[in-house]
Amino acid sequence: MAKKKIKKKENKKKNYFQQETELAWKYIKESKNYIAVVSGIFILLFLIGFSFPYLAPPELLNPLLEQVKTWVEELMKETAGKGFIEMWAFIFFNNTYIALISLFGGILLGVIPIFLLISNGLVIGLISSIVAKDVGLFSLWRLFPHGIFEIPAIILSFALGIKLAGFIFKKNFKKEFRVLLKESTRAFIFIIVPLLVLAAIIEAVLIIYVG
What we know:
This protein has helices at 2-30, 32-55, 58-79, 84-104, 111-135, 140-147, 150-164, 173-210. It has 211 residues and is mainly alpha-helical.
């Protein structure tokens, strides 16, 4: 009897997780237009950031490159000597924080996800360009595994955050807000967080064991 009860509880947990994950995917599919637009904007901003070192005058470019160099050096100092678990936790919690404020920051009329979309697209493009310029264009393929799960998760957060901001334009905006918030929370827990877990594992392995 005890074994049957345990199995029933396990089945209920599995069914709950499966059901919530399916509902989260359904919401993401319903948000495909937002995701497509945000993805397009992100790619455009990435290309602008990537081309910036080739087009900007030296007096504008050099101070910016110094800032990026300082930021990278500080990041390397902060992560130096970390083991796998520490590195994973560092990456995961940083990415989760960005995803969290991007998505739920949509409550503030979408200002936060829009700002983070613009800044992340430009900065990632700029850093990729600097790496390609210093080490070679082929070196970008080494960076690809770092973003294979992280970038889709962050783009989802931007898109769903902007969609969440849409509640203000609805007639029954209080009810719409509750619905969108519930759906956004489900998508964050059951889709975005698992993607960020995988992203942090891959990045930690690459940083520590591959270099």
